[in-house]
Amino acid sequence: MEQEIKKINPRYFDDKTEEILSLLEKTRTEFWNLDRECANFLNTLIKINKSKNVLEIGTSNGYSGIWILKALKETKGKLTTIEFWEKRQSTARKNFAFCAPDVLCEPKIGSAIVVLEDILDEIKKNKREKFDFIFIDANKKEYIDYFRLVDKMLVEGGIILADNILSHYEKVKDYVENLFNNPNYQSQILDFGSGMMLSRKN
User: Closest Cα partner for 163 from 201, 199, 133, 195?
Assistant: First the structure.
């Protein structure tokens, strides 16, 4: 039964979007993208939470971003996404324009920590609103550093979803232990894909 279920590959979007997603799925190991199961969970969670202001740390070629944008089309929201490599985000921007041209998206290039510091400064100066959903999928060793910054830019009741928690546990151990021992967050590790950690700010 389990093997039969895994063979099911539901299509959720229009043909052109599904075609792009299928192409990107073939390069998953090269670009460290989410698998489809995790991407669908991400999309569903944003819609369940009715998130309108999403931050993604780690754009890559835009695979996860497409799923985020499709959710934000329903919630009428905006995606801010950070990527260190310009070539990767250039590809992502093309994919976003093709698959979700009518959804607000703000791509940012540079070191995630530096960009996050700039964003936090804008929030403090009331030039930008806080986020209600943050997805982390970038340099694993920096997860704890990302958290120290995004904690200050996440609304109460907001969600942080982090990928590669089980596949790169040694690198993200500090992040995991911090969240589990943080009284301001309720967290759960999800044992599918490469392992995800879902944290809600109390």
Answer: 195
- CA atoms in the 13 A half-sphere facing the CB of 193: 23
Tokens of 79: 């995606």
**Residue 126, class by beta-carbon neighbours within 10 Å (0-12 exposed, 13-18 middle, 19+ buried)?**
exposed
| Residues 93 and 119: beta-carbon distance below 8 Å | no
Which pTM was predicted?
A: 0.93
pLDDT along the chain (202 residues), means of 10: 56 91 88 90 98 97 97 98 94 97 97 98 98 97 98 98 97 98 98 96 96
End-to-end alpha carbon distance in the chain: 38
